[in-house]
């Protein structure tokens, strides 16, 4: 099937094309051009002046549509993935909070099944924990948290190849060995839920930790102990130029001013936008998977209000927040939601930009940055065809 999207403002790696078109054959981008001339035999879709940008690549998301990936079932996965796709996510790495080994195995089996399907948006599993600093547990389930255990993580990585990312606190006993082993398997290793200071981050980086989980959240900044001042995890990560970061760009987890600061210091190519969304995102549900969690002020919190526990954000909200509140140019915000996470996760060869030969993952946004249509692998996502 041949489809041509015309009358659009198209974001390409070279910048904006005004009045151009995107030609799609089946699940691939055939051409991106500044010409609006209709192609014989193509289904013509008038974008009505909308922004046509790459679909979002979500690298940290716990659930949506009322379901959580920790459930481990195919039904839960499909429901959560579909809910986020309606808001502009076209590639997704389902994320588990700190879990038991049986829970991880169940989720891995489901991930493998979905990844094996043609044109699947599921690209791999992300484990957020369970090797974290208990003092920085935040919304994690505390009884699941422990120090890195090679008798757990080595067999897991030997028996499945769907795990694409694993987060840990590098100051824990055994965390450096964990980083070396996991990164040697081609898995992204990220710093998270940590009290690490500069020497810890330096050692972690040398051991294969290259990314920071929900930057600024569940990690200390500049602080003082007994009159002496110390750099926190935040400043340490800023100082290591090639470490990438992700931010929960809902405007609540990180204030818009700090979102702008991250953008200025780390830059577009080292900053990814994430939702860190829980089951109640993209849903009428007001209940999170974890009974300790409440929804208040547009965000998920522990019921005692001691910590944020995740967001109810979706991909389109991230882009709007960065543009309308953090005052970041639209092209840069979109790149941080698509191109950069695709690069971080090693899928930029087929995802993250609108280019000839890449997967036809496309998002149409109107002037207010609301979703007007989503194409995943060339197919319109159900419920998003507001252009036609």
CATH architecture of the largest domain: Alpha-Beta Barrel
Overall outline: globular
Overall strand count: 23
Number of helices in the DSSP assignment: 10
Helix content: 25-40%
- Classified in CATH, the superfamily of the largest domain is Metal-dependent hydrolases
Strand residue percentage: 25-35%
User: The biggest beta sheet, please?
Assistant: 8 strands, mixed
When the domains are counted, the total is 2
The N- and C-terminal alpha carbons lie at a distance of 17 Å
Could you name the CATH topology of the largest domain? Answer: TIM Barrel
Explain what the structure shows.
This protein has helices at 74-85, 101-115, 150-159, 175-184, 198-206, 233-239, 256-266, 315-325, 330-337, 339-344, and strands at 2-12, 15-25, 28-33, 43-46, 51-54, 56-61, 63-64, 67-68, 89-96, 125-131, 163-168, 188-191, 209-212, 223-225, 228-230, 244-248, 271-274, 293-296, 299-302, 308-310, 362-365, 371-376, 379-380. It has 388 residues and is an alpha/beta fold. The chain folds into two domains: 2-53 and 355-380, Roll (Urease, subunit C, domain 1); 56-344, Metal-dependent hydrolases (TIM Barrel, Alpha-Beta Barrel). Strands 1, 2, 3, 4, 5, 21, 22 and 23 form an eight-stranded mixed sheet that branches. Strands 6-9-10-11-12-13-16-17 form an eight-stranded parallel sheet. The longest helix has 15 residues, at 101-115.
């Amino acid at each position: 099937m041949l489809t041509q999207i015309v009358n659009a403002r198209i974001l390409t790696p070279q910048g904006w094309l005004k009045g151009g078109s995107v030609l799609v054959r089946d699940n691939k981008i055939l051409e991106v051009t500044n010409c609006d001339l209709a192609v014989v035999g193509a289904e013509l879709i008038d974008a009505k002046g909308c922004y046509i940008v790459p679909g979002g690549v979500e690298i940290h998301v716990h659930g949506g549509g009322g379901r959580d990936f920790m459930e481990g079932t195919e039904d839960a996965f499909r429901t959560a993935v579909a809910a986020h796709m309606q808001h502009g996510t076209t590639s997704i790495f389902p994320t588990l909070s700190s879990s038991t080994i049986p829970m991880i195995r169940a989720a891995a089996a489901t991930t493998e099944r979905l990844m094996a399907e043609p044109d699947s948006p599921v690209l791999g599993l992300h484990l957020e924990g369970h090797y974290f600093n208990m003092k920085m547990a935040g919304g994690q389930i505390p009884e699941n948290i422990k120090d890195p255990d090679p008798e757990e993580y080595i067999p897991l990585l030997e028996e499945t190849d769907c795990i694409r990312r694993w987060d840990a606190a590098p100051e824990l006993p055994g965390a450096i060995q964990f980083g070396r082993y996991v990164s040697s398997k081609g898995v992204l290793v990220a710093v998270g839920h940590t009290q690490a200071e500069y020497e810890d981050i330096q050692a972690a980086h040398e051991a294969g930790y290259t990314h920071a989980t929900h930057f600024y959240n569940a990690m200390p900044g500049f602080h003082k102990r007994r009159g002496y001042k110390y750099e926190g995890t935040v400043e340490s990560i800023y100082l290591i130029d090639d470490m990438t970061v992700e931010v929960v760009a809902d405007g609540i987890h990180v204030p818009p001013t700090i979102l702008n600061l991250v953008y200025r210091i780390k830059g577009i190519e080292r900053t990814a936008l994430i939702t860190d969304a829980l089951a109640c995102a993209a849903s009428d549900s007001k209940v999170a998977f974890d009974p300790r969690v409440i929804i208040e002020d547009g965000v998920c919190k522990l019921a005692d209000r001691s910590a944020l526990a995740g967001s109810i954000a979706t991909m389109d909200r991230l882009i709007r927040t960065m543009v309308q509140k953090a005052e970041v140019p639209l092209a840069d915000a979109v790149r941080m939601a698509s191109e950069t996470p695709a690069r971080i996760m090693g899928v930029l060869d087929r995802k993250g930009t609108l280019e000839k030969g890449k997967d036809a993952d496309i998002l149409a946004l109107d002037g207010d940055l609301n979703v007007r249509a989503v194409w995943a692998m060339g197919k319109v996502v159900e419920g998003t065809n507001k252009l036609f």
